[in-house]
């Protein structure tokens, strides 16, 4: 049994609590400004083996800093702190603790990324095909582009000899051959959707991943929590999946 502290008790926090017993985890503390436990302290963490943060991009860096100060093993699901990753990784390593981070804790998305990597390498050999991508999310999503879009763009650039730069903003000019245009749309109740399109004059091939339920992220985060409990080091969710697939 892995004991868990939930940091953020919104849609994801509630889903994690609901599914924890199915994955041999027990929620022993919940921290959220809307609840009596509002601050991350040794007391409020209640000796949980792993803290799981699904809070808000505006507070996640501060939350991670508090967790590092306490050398608290943690899983960070909240997105929007990409630029701070190198600094916080170093800080966590100095504190000799365990931390897993991920822009997308869905097993399906992780497998999709592997398919996408192979597809980019295959299409790269055929100059007729250009590459473009887009992502859609519901109107409550706080960050744009999505953390997943940033990860996927990185993977595409690393595996394409023709695309060397990603452009997320709207273009008021022609897209250049070396640019990957990755657009974001927000509205309604759209579940997270990421699409990569290989486009030639003759045809279009699209690879897409669409989330059907938040449970996919919660189950992935619980699997990561069980994996990191008792370990030290900083790992991406991809590292965890890679290890579990071995
Ligand atoms: N990595 C993934 O797989 C994944 C999947 C889904 C969502 N997310 C991200 O997780 C985050 C949360 O998503 P959600 O749908 O549960 O959002 P939500 O708005 O439903 O809930 C966020 C909760 O965090 C709380 N909160 C705000 N400040 C806090 C603080 N300082 N400490 C603790 N809690 C605080 C809010 O009161 C709220 O209850 C978002 O950034 C979202 O993009 C990531």
Oligomer: single chain
**Poorly predicted runs:** none
Helix content: 25-40%
Q: Give the percentage of residues in beta strands.
A: 15-25%
What's the CATH architecture of the largest domain?
Answer: 3-Layer(aba) Sandwich
> CATH topology of the largest domain, anyone?
Rossmann fold
How many domains comprise the coordinates?
2
Number of strands: 11
Sheet bearing the most strands, described? 6 strands, parallel
The fourth-level CATH homologous superfamily of the largest domain is: NAD(P)-binding Rossmann-like Domain
**For the CA atoms, what is the radius of gyration?**
19 Å
- The total count of helices amounts to 8
Distinct small molecules bound, one entry per kind: nicotinamide-adenine-dinucleotide
Gap between N and C termini:
23 Å
> Which class of secondary structure composition applies to the elements?
alpha/beta
The CATH class of the largest domain is Alpha Beta
Q: How would you write the strand order of the largest sheet?
A: 2-1-3-4-5-11
Instruction: Give the H and E element order.
Output: EHEHEHEHEHEHEEEEHEH
Mean residue pLDDT: 96
Question: What is the 3D shape?
Answer: elongated
């Amino acid at each position: 049994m892995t004991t868990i502290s939930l940091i953020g008790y919104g849609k994801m926090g509630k889903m994690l609590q609901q599914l924890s017993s199915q994955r041999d985890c027990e929620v022993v503390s919940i921290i959220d400004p809307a609840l009596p436990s509002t601050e991350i302290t040794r007391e409020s963490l209640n000796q949980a083996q792993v803290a799981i943060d699904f809070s808000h991009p505006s507070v996640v860096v501060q939350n991670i800093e508090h967790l590092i100060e306490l050398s608290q093993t943690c899983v960070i699901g909240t997105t929007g702190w990409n630029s701070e990753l190198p600094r916080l990784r170093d800080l966590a390593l100095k504190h000799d603790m365990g931390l897993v981070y991920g822009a997308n804790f869905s097993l399906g998305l992780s497998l999709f990324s592997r398919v996408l990597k192979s597809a980019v390498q295959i299409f790269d050999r055929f100059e007729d095909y250009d590459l473009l991508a887009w992502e859609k999310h519901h109107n409550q999503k706080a960050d744009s582009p999505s953390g997943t879009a940033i990860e996927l763009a990185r993977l595409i650039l690393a595996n394409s000899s023709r695309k060397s730069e990603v452009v997320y903003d709207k273009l008021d000019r022609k897209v250049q051959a070396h640019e990957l245009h990755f657009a974001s749309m927000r509205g309604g109740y759209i579940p997270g959707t990421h699409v990569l399109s290989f486009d030639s004059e003759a045809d279009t091939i699209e690879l897409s991943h669409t989330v059907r339920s938040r449970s996919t992220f919660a189950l992935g985060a619980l699997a990561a929590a069980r994996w990191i409990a008792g370990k030290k080091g900083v790992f991406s969710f991809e590292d965890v999946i890679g290890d579990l697939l071995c």
